[in-house]
Amino acid sequence: MALSVDSALYRWQRRGAESPSQTLSELTPLLPSVRDKVKLNLNKWRIVLPDNGRQWKDQKQVSTFYSGNKIKTTKYSWFTFLPQNLFEQFHRLGNVYFFFLAVLNWFPQVEVFHREITMLPLIVVLLVSMVKDAVEDYRKHRFDKTINFSKTRVYDKEEHAYVEKCWKDVRVGDFVQLQCNETIPADILLLYSSDQNGVCHLETANLDGETNLKQRQVVTGFSRQNTFFEPEFFQNTIICELPNNDLNKFKGYMEQPNNERIGFNIESLLLRGCTIRNTEVAVGIVIYAGHETKAMLNNSGPRYKRSKIERQMNMDIFLCVGLLFVMCLIGAVGHGIWTGNFSEHPPYDVPDKNGNFPSLVLAGFYMFLTMIILLQVLIPISLYVSIELVKLGQVFLIHNDIDLYDEEADLPIQCRALNIAEDLGQIQYIFSDKTGTLTENKMVFRRCTVDGIEFSHQENARRLETHRELDLDDEDFAKLQHFSLPPLNVERPGTYKQRTLRPLRRSQSARAHFQGHTRNRSLGRRDSNQSQVAFSTTLEKDVAPDSRLLRRVREAALHTENLSPFVHMKTSTALTDFFLALAICNTVLVSTATEPRQRVTVPPPIKPSGITLEKIHQMFQRLKLASLSQSFSSSQSSSDLGASFTAKNTEEHLAALDCCDNDNDCCDSGRGHELQGKGSTDIGSASLDEVFKSVTNSSLPTEFCYEAESPDEAALVYAAQAYSFTLVSRTPEQVTVRLPQGTLLTFDILYTLAFDSVRKRMSVVVRHPLTEEIVVYTKGADSVIMDLLEDSDKADISAEKRMKRIKEKTQKHLDYYARDGLRTLCIAKKVLNEDDFQKWANFRREAEAAIENRDELLMETAQHLETKLTLLGATGIEDRLQDGVPDTIEALREAGIQIWVLTGDKQETAVNIAYSCKLLKQRDTVFTINTENKETCESLLNLTLEEVRKNCEVEKPRRKFFGIIPTSFSTSEAPSPEFGLVVDGRTLNIIFQGGLEEKFLALTKHCRSVLCCRSTPLQKSMVVKLVRRQLKVMTLSIGDGANDVSMIQAADVGIGISGQEGMQAVMASDFAISRFKHLKKLLLVHGHWCYARLAKMVIYFFYKNVSYVNLLFWYQFFCGFSGSTMIDYWQMIFFNLFFTSIPPLLFGVLDKDVSAETLLGLPELYKIGQNSEIYKLSTFIITMLDAFYQSLICFFVPYLTYENSDIDVFSFGNPINTVSLLTILLHQALEMKTWTLFHVVAMIGSVVFYLVFSLIYNATCVLCNPPTNPYWIMEKQLSEPTFYLLCLITPVIALLPRFFIFALRGTVGASLILKAQQLDKRPKRQQDLEIQKLRSRKTTSGTPVASPTSNDDFDQNFSHLCVSPFLHPAAAAVSHGDTESQRLSTSEVNPLRKRTPEEGYFFFNRWAEEEPTTTDSSEGPVATPGQGGGKLSRDNANNFNHGSHRRSVSAVTL
Amino acid sequence: ENKMSFLPQKEGQHPSRCPDNSAFKQQKLPAWKPQLTIATVLSTFFLTGAFCLSVGICLILSANRVREVQIDYSDKCSDCSKLRENSSNWNKECHCSVNFTLKEDILGDVFMYYGLQNFYQNHRRYVISRSDAQLLGRNVNIEKSYCAPFTTYQNGTPMAPCGAIANSMFNDTIDLFYNLKSSVIQVPLLKTGNSWWTDKNVKFHNPKAYNLSSAFAGTARPPYWWKPVYLLDEEDERNNGYLNDDFIIWMRVSAFATFRNLYRRVHRIRQFAAGLPAGNYTFHISYNFPVTKFKGRKHVILSTVVWCGGSNPFLGIAYVVSGAAATLTGFVITAIHLKLRKKKTYFQK
């Protein structure tokens, strides 16, 4: 019911489909079952009657007022198309203008052209737009149709069974039966679930982007569980809220026949678009359908987008209107004066039909109107049509770009918006979703530390890399070879007879392996051609265990088996406990591979024999992997932390901290060890394998599937499984784990303290089946767990020392993990004695029973329990970044784009990801603002702002100084890159409510990147809108889930990532890509091209029209301002329509000012579009002046040539027309940077076509176009030399100034774009070198934003992680300390900074002359010390070299 | 995994949606990328300059060979012009003579033009005031044409030809006399062959009839005319009616308010075989066309032509000037180039 919903959100106006329900007075009496109780108002409540025949009459009548489930997102229908489309088209000013002109031409006093002819352009414009709209609408219609005709099972009251129906036929009150993995067709109240507990699992990814499963509860109290739900006997009436767009709120009640009411809330509502998971069958009653569902109401529909160029163009069109007005005024006044000169009407002043002359004023007025018609082309209406055509062409080319095609998904880029392609070239802010956009949304166990020993899981890392690097470009490969480890023999000779055919991805080839080291180098590569499905399943599940750790685990297992299970050795306990905790401490649901989504609640019987082929295969795989890993890290013998790090983890920050000065050496030595130790350990591991094999053989289970609320839980369980701690089953009461020895342990779960964001941890309390001990396993954020550890006062000193050391080491490892972008979790345990537990349990029960402040009590008890923990270890989980994300982000950043991440995710996760995708750098100062108090927020903002500004002032003089140096780089004023800002949703709320937006924005302007965590979809869109409106910048939003829809729609350009999470984001987006990395080419190449092409084309059109129409204007000075034309009207129309239209269109579609490779290599070039350098007011004005000049030349050269001769009107017009055609085309030729065959053909074709047309037209048309008669003029003129002479000289004079400027710029200018163009001509190899040079020059010249990697690598040693989560002013002071130290650290590097301008200058000077002197590292900056640099700068150069050197090493070993 | 199930999946293998890897679609067509390097730029400028200069000099030299005599007779025939100011005297004849001396021979074809100043033949409403169909000899309803108000008389008689252009036709007659030692020789002038061939043969036709007067029966002359259209040249049948050269030329409306129309050509016979010899000449003008109303002036012009047109030297000057400008620009760029090269900040290889 449309009236009840906020109409602003209700964009889907279905005309006439339903009558509004103002008639509620009629309705109320229709509800006999409820009317007695409450005067129910349909205006305030929705009443749903079940469609099971019991109340069919009321049901029928009520439901007619509810929307059906059919959706219609189209604008038009068959019948309304024509009128409605016309109506909308006449909203465009241009069309109204055209219409006005057409009407005007019907008045004989002002008639210039034929009446019918004037209508022609209008009709063409309308027709073209109409076709375009129709096609677009039809596409939507088709999509709607596929959705509307999806099938679902609805209860049919006649057949008393569920029958299959289309989605569109589902009505409010219908009972819908849903099966596992089905998509929910409407908003449905859950009445039955096959689950014993009445729970239905839901994946809401389509709606809010969260992939974890949500639980929905059957309406409590009404259902008698364990009996299958029979819709027939459902007699209740449902009363609930009216449709609204709040995804998290819903309330209502059910009225039973006995007037008893049962309340329900959002917990029982299944939302349209979500997917049923893990539940066999669910039945519900439809509450909201179609456009009234929450999902649809949240989808505010496409916004009509107008690109920035078009907006700017409209401005200029208004300028043109002004110009037109002035010119017409000149015409009118001139005509008045001219007429006033005569005392008597001369014979050539022809009276009107009746022989009367209009008065002077009237004549002037008529002339004004006449001039409007005459000079109408000044308003380039043809531009609109041309732009649409060009955009179609551009979109076609973008669509066909093979680089934007995703093989895995078989999806090219989808361009859904046809009219904003050029906006891609002007983006200043990117707002990105995190999960699924930056990351793959796949949690993968990466590494762990147990008992203070780090297990780097290199094999695992390598495995993860393998698939990525499969088809690395040869070029990259060549670069790598230099540094990479010698290929290792990974394929051991077949020890096992059972060789399976399935390729093992982990051990693909030697090449794949050492490519695996370079995980950050994912430059524009194609995706591997492995299929997505196979990859995604194995990637997360199969964790390649760390060989060292595996061995220990096995040893421990053997020990525990050989000795008694009750005797625990120190280390083995920690290990066992650690993995037990991983397996137990969660809320994972277990199902088996054979029956996915079927929960395993009973431990499967152990079959000692009867191993299936599959199992053998699995085992084989695992063992093979183990042996593989052996060969890599067998030399790892001691638990010495330092050694392990230096030898194995040559990641540079680790190396730096472990005081390893020369990484290369470390690497070498480590490698040496490795190779030495290889032979011996192989034997050892093989024997171990044997043992292990015998153990596992006995009890190899079917494969388990784990489903967790958060994906990282599952990752941990898979990790535990990799070490043979397999979670076998889980019920609320019991959990069964199989140990490496093969024994099954079943723990009684005493309590589960679920995760909450305040405690940031979760715990399970279990009873150990063997020891009967009560153990608390806790896992949580390191920040909290570390504080809860046991103060080992009672223990002896050595133990205390040991604990401390472990704690310190673990903390260190955790820091590394965090820096590496891993999600860290600490695992701890605690053993309770029975009394303590009972005491606590009592507490807990009390708390659970409490009515008042129950939550606080529960919290308190939880906190009470989770103390004095013993640290077991920590894990690092990777939310895997998508391919090429850091690279893309860096390129975009270099292009001057600010990137914000808006995510609903946890703060820690978001920050981690930000680090790992290089959104934040380790040495950035990160401000975190989390508060719910307005005052605090304000003061925090102020403080931070002050801090930031202080820092900026230090830099400002430098910039000013730099500004003097005439380079093109000084133009961009980007904020200091030193800061990052993290805010959460609550803080955002405060900022929005408290009017702190401006301060917030002021702060963010200084920040390198901004992270908004825990933000709702609404907040996301509010942030986007805020930035867009207040800063007046071009914004782009990119996201993949339905939670990003509003954000995508709020931005100037919305980009959806298709594939992962349903279609909602894609549907709302303007462009849909399948990977984040595609953004790079889309923006940097296509964006740039589209912008440059369109901007130049628009300017050219203005120029063309003005220069052409001015010819007519100049003529007015010689014909008494009478509105005469010297050019035949057809030739005039054709001039714009055919003779000069193809080249600019072709130019708009195909011109390439710079090649794609160069654009990708020099992201800086993107700034041209960002700063609107091609099309801005100044260029517009210059072009206008040029147009005036050229038209003057084109008119007056022929005029002066033919002055005083017997030339007639059209004979005079013909050379003018020809000359201006040549001028206009040659002007275009000057602008063209690329000449393909198309261009040449179009150019020459235009001239030839003009000549041929003119010749034919002038030869045949004696009477076609009375009263003007251009008969034989072209032919006559072609026989006269004067004509040719004119055609030669006029374009030369007209284009001389422009060509002069071009020549000057081309030969002596130094703008980046020109250099890039010159680059394109060089051979490939040289091109790369030059690009490197340009980039390094830029680096040293200290462009604030584009400080590529090297800058922060060479002073890595000073890096500080300054996450300062200040929650109150006092804490803020602490953070000041942090920044203080930060500044200290930067000041140390400052000498270099101060040098940079000069260096920049020298580079500027020397760049062209010199071939690169340093070619050793293609990555690092080429440091050429300048003359004035002196010793200091040479030092810096060394520093640079060192940095780059190290960097390349790190690139290899990562 | 059935994550995509919101969009119900279609069964069956569809062809890959991978875009073609064609040069056009991947925007990798072979292309020529012109670069404004110093070499191309300088050669362009210098070549253009040289070309324009040479052409310009040729043009100026040729234009200088044109001989032209222009005589303004609006003042010299002031009596007549005063007479014509009053339109009631329209039927009174008025003649005047204008003497002039040729100091040297005018050799070659000599063309005689009449020139009008301040006569805006290019006025919008004037330009359209004609009926091409009528002039083609077709029997058309000129009421529908743009001839209004010069279409019909009050009594309904259509005008032939209709429209303001025809109505305002130039109707002075000019004769040229050569005063050779007190004897006066009329210079033989050709009155046909002055108009475009296509005009005479394609665009203009007399209505088909037994003879001209019957062809124009039922029509009347335009109000300003003295005689009907079929009496424009009584001597030459093929130069009469709509086919009259003077009429055809007049109907080709001029581009500017000051213009000349070809009136006669000197017939190169007898002593005028080489052109007009030097000496004294007299124009005998029958002054009919009033110009004082609009402050117009009338000229008579004798001129020769060369390959590149008339006496107007502009084109030559334009070539010379732009040639000079191009050359100069070339030098400027060279200078800048050299200066920058010295400074070593110049990037070009």
UniProtKB/TrEMBL annotation, chain A:
<feature type="binding site">
    <location>
        <position position="823"/>
    </location>
    <ligand>
        <name>ATP</name>
    </ligand>
</feature>
<dbReference type="InterPro" id="IPR006539">
    <property type="entry name" value="P-type_ATPase_IV"/>
</dbReference>
<comment type="similarity">
    <text>Belongs to the cation transport ATPase (P-type) (TC 3.A.3) family. Type IV subfamily.</text>
</comment>
<feature type="binding site">
    <location>
        <position position="755"/>
    </location>
    <ligand>
        <name>ATP</name>
    </ligand>
</feature>
<feature type="binding site">
    <location>
        <position position="433"/>
    </location>
    <ligand>
        <name>ATP</name>
    </ligand>
</feature>
<feature type="transmembrane region" description="Helical">
    <location>
        <begin position="358"/>
        <end position="385"/>
    </location>
</feature>
<keyword id="KW-0547">Nucleotide-binding</keyword>
<dbReference type="InterPro" id="IPR032630">
    <property type="entry name" value="P_typ_ATPase_c"/>
</dbReference>
<feature type="compositionally biased region" description="Polar residues">
    <location>
        <begin position="1339"/>
        <end position="1352"/>
    </location>
</feature>
<feature type="transmembrane region" description="Helical">
    <location>
        <begin position="1283"/>
        <end position="1314"/>
    </location>
</feature>
<feature type="binding site">
    <location>
        <position position="1044"/>
    </location>
    <ligand>
        <name>ATP</name>
    </ligand>
</feature>
<feature type="binding site">
    <location>
        <position position="904"/>
    </location>
    <ligand>
        <name>ATP</name>
    </ligand>
</feature>
<feature type="domain" description="P-type ATPase C-terminal">
    <location>
        <begin position="1066"/>
        <end position="1305"/>
    </location>
</feature>
<keyword id="KW-0812">Transmembrane</keyword>
<dbReference type="InterPro" id="IPR018303">
    <property type="entry name" value="ATPase_P-typ_P_site"/>
</dbReference>
<dbReference type="InterPro" id="IPR023298">
    <property type="entry name" value="ATPase_P-typ_TM_dom_sf"/>
</dbReference>
<feature type="compositionally biased region" description="Basic and acidic residues">
    <location>
        <begin position="1324"/>
        <end position="1333"/>
    </location>
</feature>
<keyword id="KW-0256">Endoplasmic reticulum</keyword>
<feature type="domain" description="P-type ATPase N-terminal">
    <location>
        <begin position="63"/>
        <end position="118"/>
    </location>
</feature>
<feature type="compositionally biased region" description="Basic residues">
    <location>
        <begin position="514"/>
        <end position="523"/>
    </location>
</feature>
<keyword id="KW-1133">Transmembrane helix</keyword>
<feature type="transmembrane region" description="Helical">
    <location>
        <begin position="1177"/>
        <end position="1200"/>
    </location>
</feature>
From TrEMBL, chain B:
<feature type="transmembrane region" description="Helical">
    <location>
        <begin position="314"/>
        <end position="338"/>
    </location>
</feature>
<comment type="similarity">
    <text>Belongs to the CDC50/LEM3 family.</text>
</comment>
<dbReference type="GO" id="GO:0005783">
    <property type="term" value="C:endoplasmic reticulum"/>
</dbReference>
<keyword id="KW-1133">Transmembrane helix</keyword>
<dbReference type="GO" id="GO:0005886">
    <property type="term" value="C:plasma membrane"/>
</dbReference>
<dbReference type="GO" id="GO:0045332">
    <property type="term" value="P:phospholipid translocation"/>
</dbReference>
<dbReference type="Pfam" id="PF03381">
    <property type="entry name" value="CDC50"/>
</dbReference>
<feature type="region of interest" description="Disordered">
    <location>
        <begin position="1"/>
        <end position="20"/>
    </location>
</feature>
<keyword id="KW-0472">Membrane</keyword>
<keyword id="KW-0325">Glycoprotein</keyword>
<protein>
    <recommendedName>
        <fullName>Cell cycle control protein 50C</fullName>
    </recommendedName>
</protein>
<feature type="transmembrane region" description="Helical">
    <location>
        <begin position="36"/>
        <end position="63"/>
    </location>
</feature>
<dbReference type="InterPro" id="IPR005045">
    <property type="entry name" value="CDC50/LEM3_fam"/>
</dbReference>
<keyword id="KW-0812">Transmembrane</keyword>
<dbReference type="GO" id="GO:0005794">
    <property type="term" value="C:Golgi apparatus"/>
</dbReference>
